[in-house]
From TrEMBL:
Record field: transmembrane: 23-48, 60-87, 99-120, 140-157, 202-226, 238-260, 272-294
Protein task: Putative odorant or sperm cell receptor. Odorant receptor.
Keyword presence, Transmembrane helix: yes
Organism field: Ailuropoda melanoleuca (Giant panda)
PROSITE patterns: G_PROTEIN_RECEP_F1_1, G_PROTEIN_RECEP_F1_2
Entry membrane topology: Multi-pass membrane protein
PANTHER family the UniProt entry points to: OLFACTORY RECEPTOR (PTHR26450:SF396), OLFACTORY RECEPTOR 56B1-RELATED (PTHR26450)
UniProt keyword list: Cell membrane, G-protein coupled receptor, Membrane, Olfaction, Receptor, Sensory transduction, Transducer, Transmembrane, Transmembrane helix
Record domain G-protein coupled receptors family 1 profile: where: 41-292
GO cellular component: plasma membrane
Family: Belongs to the G-protein coupled receptor 1 family.
Gene3D superfamilies: Rhodopsin 7-helix transmembrane proteins
CDD domains associated with the record: 7tmA_OR52R_52L-like
Protein name: Olfactory receptor
Length: 312
């Protein structure tokens, strides 16, 4: 094996969460419930916004795009995680692992882009309300969605190609619950500096840059809000941003923790890193529909109306 510089294992073995194997079965219960909640919540958001023309506004259309990305992210990772927890189905084909890497990373970047687009909507609605409908036209919304989609595809499609070119002559065991770019890089027995630099650059050009632009937009929003004449107007305007701020915190807090521990957290226990990485994939798709369903009166009323109708 050491003489074969082009060794590619036919399968990888996903260990799950190392150090917590004894409670994998118990962990599967919250994982399964969170996944089912994400499916129900996001499909409900898509159905409600699709069937109610009054909700065909930029913020809710971007929310639909975010819900679609969240659904695919969850479905890419969670079924395999549950098979590891329930049936010890640790094997994943090499090509399937590369597909999972591409889908998870590209869709996470798309989700970040949609959150940025929602921040842009709040910026225009608060700082230039008279031009909101002329700036964010249906065509502009469509083009923004396509730009975010192609950005994710173009920036992260090289990752599986890089991983395919690398030799894996150490082991085929991945101490993780799903295939992740950096987890596979650590298994390669070749120089991976270029791959690591590309990964850092792609991460900055998506999540990092998106977060900086979101912060800038909210600095301008806060400046505008605090120059409003009355306290009631300031509170009402800030209230329109509450749901979006919660979504930002849910998405970026575990994402930054995962990113930083990969690069600088050599002393962080592996099971903590992997557990937070799973939270990054599982929790935002579940809480995003809840946040907008609870805090947005029109979505909440539409949901209650549909629930009451079916009950009758």
């Amino acid at each position: 094996m050491s003489n074969n510089t082009n060794f590619h294992p036919s399968t990888f073995l996903l260990l799950g969460i190392p150090g917590m194997e004894a409670i994998h079965t118990w962990l599967s219960v919250p994982f399964c419930l969170v996944y089912l909640s994400a499916l129900v919540g996001n499909f409900a958001i898509l159905f409600i916004i699709r069937t109610d023309s009054n909700l065909h506004e930029p913020m809710f259309l971007f929310l639909c795009m975010l819900s679609t990305a969240d659904l695919i992210i969850s479905t890419t990772a969670v079924p395999k995680i549950l098979s590891i927890f329930w049936f010890h189905g640790r094997e994943i084909h090499f090509e399937g692992c590369l597909v999972q890497v591409f889908l998870i990373h590209s869709l996470c970047s798309m989700a970040s882009g949609f959150i940025l687009a929602m921040a842009f909507d709040r910026y225009v609605a608060i700082c230039d309300p008279l031009r909101h409908s002329t700036i964010l036209t249906p065509r502009v919304i469509k083009n923004l969605g396509l730009a975010i989609f192609f950005r994710g595809v173009l920036l992260f499609s090289p990752q599986p190609l890089m991983l395919r070119w690398l030799p894996y002559c150490r082991t085929n065991v991945i101490p993780h619950t799903y295939c992740e770019f950096m987890a596979l890089i650590k298994l390669a027995c070749a120089e991976t500096r270029t791959c690591r630099i590309y990964s850092l650059t792609a991460a900055f050009l998506t999540g990092g840059l998106d977060f900086l632009l979101i912060v800038c937009s909210y600095v301008i929003i806060l400046y505008t809000v605090f120059h409003l004449p009355s306290k009631a107007a300031r509170l009402k305007t800030l209230g329109t941003c509450g749901s979006h701020v919660c979504v930002i915190l849910a998405a970026y807090t575990p994402a930054f923790f995962t990113f930083l521990t990969h690069r600088f957290g050599q002393h962080v226990a592996p099971h903590i890193h992997i557990f937070v990485a799973n939270i990054h994939l599982l929790v935002p798709p579940m809480v995003n529909p809840v946040i907008y369903g609870v805090r947005t009166k029109r979505i909440r009323d539409r949901f209650l109306q549909a629930f009451t109708f079916h009950k009758l």
